[in-house]
Amino acid sequence: YYINKMKIAVYSCNLGNYRNELSVDILNNIKFNKDIDYYFFTEQDIKLSNWNVVKTNLEESLSFMNKYRNTSKYLKFVLPKILKSYDYVIWCDTKKESLKNINSINIDKIKKLILETDKKIFLIQHPQRTNPIQEIDITKKLKLENEENADIFKKKIEDIVFNSKLPDTTTIIRKVDNKINNLFKEVYD
Asked: Checking DSSP bridges between strand 88-92 and strand 167-175, what pairing results, if any?
């Protein structure tokens, strides 16, 4: 019964178009599933078909991240109120490669995966990197992170042996409950 009544939403955002990846055509041409609700968060006035467009206030800039990137990270990890009534949510970045992941959503396969595994978080393996040190190094090289903060974090984790693969957080399936919501908020913080 629960699996048939499960409410699922896909959500994404684009703020300030800081990576030049906002494409109304691509967003409108996704294969939408009638059993899933779709939400798109932005500060811009755009019209999208099949998406609930949510006008979004920007978070403050931080010393190491502008307001657009900060707000994007905030929305990704701190679940917006409008999504809290869902059982599971699927985050998807607006990169063209990432949007392909929501194009191939099969609601029955997702429900079966959730039911059979009883897991609360599903991630995909990072396509290029295998560990957090590599991720830190590339984000520093691309000037996406504050070097001083990145080096401090790198020092904290350099002796940890990770038993899992490095996840790619461009697509995340997660249960909506207090425990998982708090965990993701900690990631943002």
From this structure: antiparallel
Contact between 38 and 32 under an 8 Å Cβ cutoff? The reply is yes
Q: What is the pLDDT of residues 53-91, one digit of tens each?
A: 999 999 999 888 889 989 999 999 999 999 999 999 999
Of 75, 82, 70, the closest CA to residue 38 belongs to 82
| Residue of 111, 37, 18, 47 lying closest to 80 (CA atoms) | 37
Using CA atoms, how far residue 140 sits from 38, 73, 75, in Å, is 33, 17, 23
- What amino acid is encoded at 58 in this protein? L
Q: Is 171 exposed, middle or buried (0-12, 13-18, 19+ CB in 10 A)?
A: buried
Q: Is 33 exposed, middle or buried (0-12, 13-18, 19+ CB in 10 A)?
A: middle
Q: How many H helices and E strands in the chain?
A: 8, 6
Task: Determine the Cα–Cα distance for residues 27 and 49; give it in Å rounded to an integer.
Answer: 8
Mapped onto helix, strand or coil, the DSSP state of residue 119 is coil
